[in-house]
Amino acid sequence: MKIEHIETTVLEMPYKKPLVTATNNFTVARGLLVKVVTDDGVEGYGYSDLFPRTGETPETARHVIESVLRVKVVGKDLEDLVRLRADIDLTLTGNPRAKAALETAMYDALARSYHIPLYLMLGGRYRSAIKVIKMVSVDDPEAMAEEARQLVREGLSLKLKVSGKIDQDLPRVAAVRKAVGDDVFIKVDANEAYDAKTAIRLAKGLADHGVEIFEQPVPRDQLDALWEVKKHSPIKIEADQSVRTVADAQMVIKNRMVDSINTGIPKVGSIGEVRRIAELCELNGIRCSLSNTAGSMVGDAAAVHLAASAPGIVPLCELGEFEVITGDPFFGLSVEKGAISVPEGEGLGVSLRGF
Predict the structure, then answer these.
(1) Cβ-contact 107, 271 below 8 angstroms
(2) 237 phi and psi, to 5 degrees?
(3) To which H or E segment does residue 48 belong?
(4) Which helix (H) or strand (E) covers residue 301, if one does?
(5) Which residues contact 324 (CB under 8 A, 6 or more apart)?
(6) 271-284 and 96-113 helices cross at what angle (nearest 10)?
(7) Bridge partners of 290?
(8) Third-level CATH fold of 120-352
(9) CB neighbours (10 Å) of residue 282?
(10) Do β-strands 25-38 and 3-20 pair in parallel, antiparallel, or remain unpaired?
(11) Which strands make up the sheet holding 25-38, listed edge to edge?
(12) For residue 355, is pLDDT > 50?
């Protein structure tokens, strides 16, 4: 079964409500949809969210796929997917989000060609549902508390975005904790906004409010600062932007710089790379979670199948953000009672509207 052609489409999907973080103000989710079609007429889809701070845009990813990667896959046997992926990496360094979208489309097509769910192709099912953490945008304390209260009513855990200003961020966290009670899981994400000394002060304040994880407190490349925060923090410290490759994960784990790693297929560029990171974490007693920003549910479906098949990934992940946007051309995935059930349909288990 050969890959006959590939297609790319830029998707722009408005947010129902802007998502404000320390580094971004998202009003529209922009990403690239990739379709792979085989000579048997099987279609597979992949998607990556793309925005400037990722180092890629829909336009750059589209260019890379159309002008560099297309020739590496069209006319080739889809069953050779692993070798094709290795050839892609040999041809092109970097560009993980473009590669992830193309690879996911190939995985989807391959699983659909055998009429099986993707998780079976990834080794089988370890869990049947993924519990969901939902993001709460930076806002005034009362607004964040009200949004958090509603999410908790829906059975969801919380990830609070903060601004990088400790005198404003601690009151935000305090208001949310007061609103939702003591038993709700809360993670706080600084998106690289703090220096080490202030991050340590904030971590001590977060501990007072029962926050369990403090994500990416300092800029991604300030690894000594990350280690300093980890050394003095009373709560778990999680790396996100600091871990962009398996080598990054190996280094922060070896040097005990973090308690947790938050990763994802678009971030590191492939399903296999995420799995390697999860296995490293599992071997070393480090927590490993998956996340995704808002975009087409195609991206989340791939993450759900991966989390379902990988024991090293915790069953509580930051997925389901497709619910906060409009205009997704796909259906078949939903958050129910605070969790996403693993799709049982062929491939990713999601479908294009109108088919």
Answers:
(1) yes
(2) -110, 130
(3) strand 43-49
(4) helix 297-309
(5) 15, 16, 17, 19, 294
(6) 100
(7) 263
(8) TIM Barrel (3.20.20)
(9) 15
(10) antiparallel
(11) 3-20, 25-38, 43-49
(12) no
- Report angle CA 212, 215, 219 to the nearest 5 degrees: 150
Give CA–CA dist 132/115, Å, rounded: 28
Is 338 in a helix, a strand, or coil? coil
Q: How far apart are CA 286 and CA 316, in angstroms?
A: 14
**What is the CATH architecture assignment of 3-115?**
2-Layer Sandwich (3.30)
> Which of 300, 305, 304, 310 is CA-nearest to residue 330?
300
* Rounded Cα gap, residues 306 and 311, in angstroms: 10
Does residue 284 carry a pLDDT above 80?
yes
Interval 156-170: pLDDT, tens: 999 999 999 999 999
Residue 311 CB neighbour total at 10 angstroms: 13
Q: What is the pLDDT of residues 227-283, one digit of tens each?
A: 999 999 999 999 999 999 999 999 999 999 999 999 999 999 999 999 999 999 999
Average pLDDT, the chain: 96
What residues does each domain of the chain span? 3-115, 120-352
- 């078949």: which residue's tokens? 332
Q: Which helix (H) or strand (E) holds 119?
A: helix 118-121
pLDDT tens digits, one per residue of 105-151: 999 999 999 999 999 999 999 999 999 999 999 999 999 999 999 99
In angstroms, rounded to a whole number, what is the distance separating the alpha carbons of residues 264 and 234? 26
The pTM score is 0.96
Q: What is the pLDDT of residue 354?
A: 63
Chain position carrying tokens 């973090």: 258
Would the pLDDT of 52 be above 50?
yes
DSSP characters for 159-218? EEE--S-HHHHHHHHHHHHHHH-TTS-EEEE-TT---HHHHHHHHHHHHHTT--EEE--S
